[in-house]
Design a protein that fits this description.
The structure holds two protein chains of two kinds. Chain A is an alpha+beta fold. Helix content of chain A is 30%, strand content 19%. Chain A is globular. In chain B, α5 crosses α8, α8 crosses α10 and α10 runs parallel beside α11. The chains are: A alpha+beta, B mainly alpha. The interface between A and B is large, with 47 and 48 residues.
């Protein structure tokens, strides 16, 4: 055998050995297409869902909402409340460390709570009850209240934007209106900043130091056990291409494929559907209280009689498998859901709607209805609203625009004929509207309310009562009272619940059902 | 020649200034608000106002324009509203995929279109001529994204020969780079092939009846040599012009193709920036595209002297 041939043979053996070793330690990478590309990295600075999802990858929370909607300790090991309900003591569980190896301390958590509370509406409300938050020892801090409130756990266990994620003190001390630049967390994944390329991909690797809780994963609570080495969020903006890539095996998971592409994906034997968000989403109609005729409650009530949820859901979602009529402001399946006060409403009773318009003296002012055209899950809502409103006797001027233009315009208080608006339709993630405090559109605080600016002292009093109440039964009664009040004042109108599962290849299993898509517990065969 | 190039470069300045003013004004006059987008759907008015202030969008348009212009003149294109990165870095990062795509597309188009055009002219009225002309009509008529999806369906999903989407940097290997560029380049080159083939055919047809072609044939030169050395060389100026125009027109195609094939290039950056109303990025990318357009045209004009020695600047 010549020297050359021997060398080639030796090289082949070595290469083969390397190949075997490599395959034995093959890295498990989950390739995912999220609903949007990640461009901002501070989940306290923005309420955008994609940033919230990023937050769940790399940060941990003191408490978390489980699959039944209960709030369970997460980073907290021991939680005590004094008999007078004014002193809440939190002790962190053992073994919590930041990604840089430093231990998580009570100081870090206090700074994180304070930063979150500046930005988040629930946090702001909670802070009106808080007298002080003090560090007792490296693992313990004490929150002292001026008066009892049920918002301590509701706030700290809030499942959706803004989630009170814990950050190191040096990071949490960043001005809340400035984005953070240090992405050290203590969550189950570590953010690979050097591999982050907006418009291309976002990469996370398993946090080897993370110590999951012993309980099984349930919703956003329980043990966050990571079974993959790496998660890549691939930025594929074209839905059709995302499904093509899934079919070709180039990706493993699509968070939010549009309903019309589900049959294409599911026609492949290697693809399955998983509804990771069983609470779903809720369509909502929002009138603007500032301008005639919606400054009149009777006109707003007329809408409640004119609309019916089925028409909206059929027009947008189509397949009843993915929608549910739900005559409750608080989404069906969530703890405070109720039909109290909703009798006879949302049944398209045009006669009653016309009577109310007549009583209100509606003069035929055209309703400027903003129609978002670029998001498939919203596009068909406004035409249905227009049709039902016209049947009830409204004149409707439906103006089409892209969602980002609508977002900018809805912030304007100008009259509708001068760049303002009368109404628009949107969708809420159910986890964001599970109680009267979370539900932003229920805020009737006039200038302090969200766009639409409803103004009602009774509603604000009820929301305050809810915040002060700690007994779950009484909280429920107050929530029902807010719903009854809603039917009288109509800050907004729920138009039904809809669901959108993730398409994934069948080698992906173990995903946890939760209000946000999370990637712990997932197995990749 | 040098004086001509210098004159043309100086003439670029007012063009770029007009583009800058137009882009700046159009963005500010559109009914959108980057601050509202950044703040997210659940943000309240105070949060949006705070972000607007931080971005400097609460200042009068003239003030914003003066700040942006003075920074741009100093080579500072600003920081992206969304990516929190310098726009210059973003553009440099996205340059390679776009340049690769444009280069590969142009090479592919020229290699296919010029011989096809010459052959179609040489065999005027034959089945080959009709096929080339038919293809040209098809190439002009079918939108880029339809061609893209059709190619993906056949070559990536059904035959599984090529990847559906994505881009691999050249530094990670030529094979992977090429593999991921084939479908996007093919998609993008269809229009360019149609355009170049058609113009090549027309230009070659025009020169085929010239006296020097007859003379070349009379001298006993082969038909291949006649076509290459005499017909094509003399028809080159309009062909080069259309190639130049085609390359400049690729800018629009790149935006669509990069979106369809998920290529993280300048086209995709443009789409993302427009959707997010990322003013600094949009302004910079459009200025860059305009500059590229002007320079490509200049380059085309300069190549005329190479193909036709009678042209002097």
């Amino acid at each position: 055998m010549s020297y050359l041939r021997r060398s080639v043979l030796a090289l082949a053996v070595v290469a083969g050995a390397i190949g075997l070793t490599a395959s034995a330690h093959a890295e498990k990478t989950l390739r995912v297409v999220m609903h949007s590309d990640l461009k901002i990295l501070d989940p306290i600075w923005t309420t955008a869902y994609i940033v919230r999802n990023h937050g769940y990858m790399i940060y941990d929370t003191l408490f978390a909402t489980d699959a039944t909607g209960e709030i369970k300790p997460q980073m907290v090991g021991n939680y005590e409340v004094s008999a007078d309900k004014l002193t809440h003591t939190f002790t962190l569980r053992d073994g919590l460390t930041w990604h840089d190896g430093q231990p998580v301390t009570a100081d870090d958590c206090v700074a994180s709570i304070k930063r979150w509370a500046v930005k988040d509406s629930t946090g702001q409300k909670l802070m009106t009850f808080v007298a002080s938050i003090e560090v007792r020892d490296p693992k313990t801090f004490v929150m002292t209240l001026k008066s009892p409130t049920g918002l301590v756990l509701l706030g700290l266990g809030k499942p959706s934007s803004n989630v009170p994620f814990m950050m190191p003190k040096r990071v949490a001390e960043t001005d809340p209106n400035t984005q953070i630049a240090d992405f050290t967390g203590s969550g189950p994944f570590v953010f690979k900043q050097d591999e982050w390329k907006p418009g291309d991909k976002t990469v996370y690797i398993r946090n080897e130091k993370y110590k999951p809780r012993a309980e099984p994963a349930s919703g956003l609570a329980g043990g966050k056990v990571v079974n993959v080495d790496r998660v890549e969020w691939r930025a594929i903006s074209d839905h059709q291409q995302a499904v093509n890539a899934l079919l070709a095996g180039e990706i493993d998971f699509i968070e939010a494929p549009p309903h019309d592409l589900l049959p294409l994906g599911l026609a492949d034997a290697n693809v399955k559907l998983f509804d990771w968000n069983p609470w779903g989403n809720q369509y909502t109609f929002r009138p603007n209280w500032l301008h005639k005729p919606f400054d009149n409650p009777k006109v707003r009530q007329a809408l409640m009689y004119a609309f019916n949820q089925e028409d909206f859901l059929k027009a947008v979602v189509g397949d009843p498998t993915y929608y549910k009529v739900c005559n409750s402001y608080f989404p069906c399946g969530t703890p405070l859901s109720s039909e109290k006060g909703m009798d006879g409403l949302l049944k398209s009773n045009f006669q009653r709607a016309q009577e109310l318009l007549k009583e209100a003296g509606y003069d035929g002012t055209p309703i400027v209805l903003m129609h978002s055209t670029d998001l498939a899950v919203l596009t068909n809502l406004a035409p249905v609203a227009k049709s039902l409103m016209e049947k009830a006797g409204f004149k409707v001027d439906m103006q089409s625009m892209d969602w980002q233009t609508l977002v900018a315009r809805r912030a304007k208080k100008d009259p509708p004929n001068a760049g303002g608006w009368h109404a628009f339709l949107t969708s809420w993630v159910s986890a964001d509207i599970t109680n009267p405090i979370f539900m932003g559109f229920m805020n009737a605080g006039c200038e302090k309310a969200m766009f639409g600016w409803p103004c009602d002292e009774t509603m604000e009093k009820l929301r305050d009562d809810f915040a002060r109440e700690i007994d779950p039964a009484k909280q429920r009664a107050i929530a029902e009272a807010t719903q009854v009040r809603e039917t009288q004042i109509v800050t907004h109108i729920p138009l039904g619940q809809w669901y959108l599962g993730a398409l994934m290849r069948k080698n992906v299993s173990g995903m946890v059902a939760a209000p946000a898509p999370v990637f712990w517990n997932i197995q990749l065969q | 020649m040098f004086a001509y190039v210098l004159r043309r470069l100086v003439a670029t300045i007012p063009v770029m200034a007009i583009v800058a003013i137009m882009v700046f004004l159009m963005l500010r006059l559109t009914p959108s608000d980057p601050a509202a987008i950044i703040a997210g759907d659940n943000a309240n008015a105070e949060q949006v106002a705070e972000i607007r202030k931080r971005l400097g969008l609460d200042q009068p348009i003239l003030t914003q324009f003066v700040i942006w212009t003075s920074k741009t003149l100093q080579g500072d294109l600003g920081e992206s509203f969304f990516f929190k990165k310098q726009v210059t870095d973003l553009i440099l990062d996205r340059l390679e995929p776009t340049v690769s795509l444009a280069f590969f597309t142009t090479v592919l188009a020229v290699l296919i279109a010029v011989p096809l055009g010459v052959l179609a002219a040489y065999r005027q009225g034959s089945w080959l001529d009709r096929i080339v002309m038919g293809f040209s009509v098809l190439g002009f008529s079918v939108p880029v994204f339809v061609i893209g999806y059709a190619l993906i369906y056949v070559f990536a999903i059904e035959l599984n020969w090529l990847p559906v989407q994505g881009y691999q940097r050249l530094s990670l290997g030529v094979a992977g780079w090429l593999q991921r560029l084939i479908l996007p380049s093919l998609t993008l080159s269809v229009v360019l092939i149609a355009l170049i083939a058609r113009i090549t055919r027309t230009s070659v047809l025009e020169v085929m009846n010239e006296d020097y072609i007859r003379t070349a044939r009379a001298k006993g030169q082969t038909e291949g040599r006649v076509l290459r050395r005499h017909a094509l060389a003399n028809a080159a100026v309009p062909i080069v012009t259309v190639i130049g125009l085609g390359v400049a027109a690729l800018i629009g195609g790149v935006v669509v193709t990069e979106s369809v094939y998920t290529i993280p290039g300048l086209g995709r950056l443009t789409v993302d920036a427009v959707l997010a109303r990322d003013y600094p990025t949009i302004q910079a990318v459009i200025l860059l595209f305009s500059l590229a357009y002007v320079l490509i045209n200049l380059l085309v004009d300069m190549t005329y002297t190479f193909f036709d020695p009678r042209i002097r600047y």
